[in-house]
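Worked problem 6 (solution included).
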Amino acid sequence: MEAPATLVRVDLLEVHLEEIGNLWLRRGASLRSPDATLKTLSEIDGRMAAHLEGLAVGGPAGLALAGAALESDDSTTTFAGAYALLRLGGDVDKRRVLEAFLATDVGPRAGLCAALCDSPIDDLVRPLSDALGAAPSPLGAEIAEVLATHGALDPGSLELTGLMKDGNPLVRARAWRVVAIVDGKATG
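Solution. The predicted structure is:
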């Protein structure tokens, strides 16, 4: 006897994916709020994990939905898709997130950068390190942030030094934030 086919409600998977993005925005706002507490952040993280589990129930349909989100022009949507693929997907899915990050325009790339910072990426550190030297400075600063967040950036690297002296003030500002991350990892 054949096992019954599992019915997947794509509309519910879409809600889970959307909520992951919305909760990411709330988490970011909480991190900047003087009223936020560890309990607040813990609750948001717990809700994100629950929605991630809900998306995982969809199996391949959930991963396909997350993959499609990588092509959005909205950074909240790209975050949700990348976050789900990095945490639920296999090597091919992780590589897809990396390729989207390296090829995407600035706006939606913010979500991809945040997902890479907030997810386990051990197998992506090497290709990110390789891309750092050849990347245009705005992307290079984001790559440096991802690597620094995971403790995989040499604080004395020529790439980081170059980003700190870049002609674009936004790149310099991000590079100095990266220095703070690296410094925090060294002393923490």
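Discussion: The mean pLDDT is 92.
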